[in-house]
Amino acid sequence: MKTTLRFFIFICFSIFHFISINSVFTLPLQNVIENPSKPLNPDSGRVVKLTEIMRIQDDGNKFFFRWPGFPKTAPNGMIFVKARDQLLQFDGQGNFLRNLFKKGQGPKEMMFVGNYYPIKDNLLVHSTSPRKIMWFDYEGNIEKEISISKKNLWLNFLFFYKGHYYFILQETAMPKKREEVLDIRQELISYEEDGQAINSHAGFTTKQYIKLGKEGGRVFAGITNMLTSVGQDRYVFIAHTSEYLVKVFDAESQSLIRSFRRDYQRVKATDEDRKTGASIDGEMVMMPPQKYKNDIKNLHVSDDKLFVITSTSDKKKGLLIDVFDFKGNYVDMFYLQGPEDLMRSYLNPYRSYVTDGCLYAIINEEDGAVFLVKYELENI
After folding, report:
1. I want to staple 156 with a disulfide (CB 3.0 to 4.6 A). Which of 6, 51, 142, 168 is the partner?
2. Dmax of the chain from CA atoms?
3. pLDDT given for residue 116 in this prediction
4. How confident is the model at residue 29 (pLDDT cuts 50, 70, 90)?
5. Global pTM?
6. pLDDT tens track for 176-201
7. CB 315: neighbour CB atoms within 10 A?
8. Is the peptide bond before 130 cis (omega within 30 degrees of 0)?
9. In what order do the strands lie in the sheet containing 142-147?
10. Strand pairing partners for 69?
11. DSSP string, 267-278
């Protein structure tokens, strides 16, 4: 099932379409903040353990965890999980409240859920078909719907700030060979409140491996990925390169304001890193070998700090996580210790979420059971 799901996702990518919106790619930032290898906190390097405080499992009746992901919490403590044909809402104690998804193409309906973003009084949901932003209150009512320009087929909704809906727009990969590595253009854009006028703010590049099947079909796999995390409903932290570098976009000024990195010892890649999880022409697809792993595996904002999940892992201590303040200063570092399946979820941008000193993660257990688990980060 895992292979089928991944392959389905890769196939969906093949319909991506990109348009130019009078954008000029941003030149590399000159004000890169260089941090040393050691953070400011003298107590850095400690081991942070996880204490499970809540576990949610589908009951096989009211809701099902079918391909769940994108766990998030609202400012009022409510919990949300996206799943197949579902957008599930729970209260802060994990009690199921409702499924916000109503399948269809009419008013108050959607065929597919993209990303979603909770704000103080509303949950903003991006319907990818039909293309619109749906404003839910926390009682499950739809207050309004904003139609999105139909010119773009692939958009990743990030957040809403002062009348602007922010998205990542990814160009279509157009391979000329059966097997190829391409530079993929990513663009940070915003729609104004009417959902039609588009603004371009910054451009980025990722690398994607593509393999075409002899009899049709294709596999897309990111060699580097577009990692984003939103802080204080205003800042977007972005990592998109193989080497250690984080860029910061400020929605108030609508521009990239800084970038930062730290002296980091890179980790050599292995054959395990080449696996895509998909097959084509009856064979498992392997990406081209890389010398090093991507330095940054994921980004999480927790309160006023940015957690950078690195590629470094210690067998005894756990997963190395760097901590920066919003100005780009390297303030702390710790090792996160926990079960192997949780560590895989924490590395996955679509299966984990951090807020208020707690980690929410989608966990698949060996018997096939799927859970949303809330952990407290001890001694953070």
Report:
1. 168
2. 59
3. 97
4. low
5. 0.90
6. 898 999 999 999 999 998 888 899 99
7. 5
8. yes
9. 112-118, 123-129, 131-136, 142-147
10. 82
11. -B--GGGGEEEE
DSSP of 203-257: EEEEEEEEEE-TTS-EEEEESS--EEEEETTTEEEEE-SSSS-EEEEETTTTEEE
Report which of 185, 184, 242, 173 is spatially closest to residue 10, judged by C-alpha positions. 173
Q: What residue has token string 């593509």?
A: 210
Residue 26 has pLDDT above 70, yes or no: no
Residue 37: count of CB within 10 angstroms of its CB: 10
Strand order across the beta sheet in which 218-222 lies? 155-161, 164-170, 179-191, 198-212, 218-222
Reading the block at residue 169, the tokens are: 């727009």
DSSP symbols for 306-357:
EEEEEEEEETTTEEEEEEEETTS-EEEEEEEE--HHHHHHHH-TTSEEEETT
Please provide the size of the chain in residues: 380
Q: 95 by DSSP, 3-state: which?
A: coil
Strand partners, 51: 376
Q: Binning pLDDT at 50, 70 and 90, where does residue 30 land?
A: low
Task: Determine which helix (DSSP H) or strand (DSSP E) holds 170, and give its type and residue range.
Answer: strand 164-170
Q: Which residues, other chains included, contact 320 with Cβ-Cβ below 8 Å and sequence gap of 6+?
A: 310, 312, 313, 314, 333, 334, 335
State the residue for tokens 């700090």: 305
Tens digit of pLDDT for each residue in 98-152?
999 999 999 999 999 999 999 999 999 999 999 999 999 999 999 999 999 877 6
Domain boundaries, the chain: 2-377
Distance CA 188, CA 194 (A): 18
Angle at 350 between CA 322 and CA 105, to 5 degrees: 150
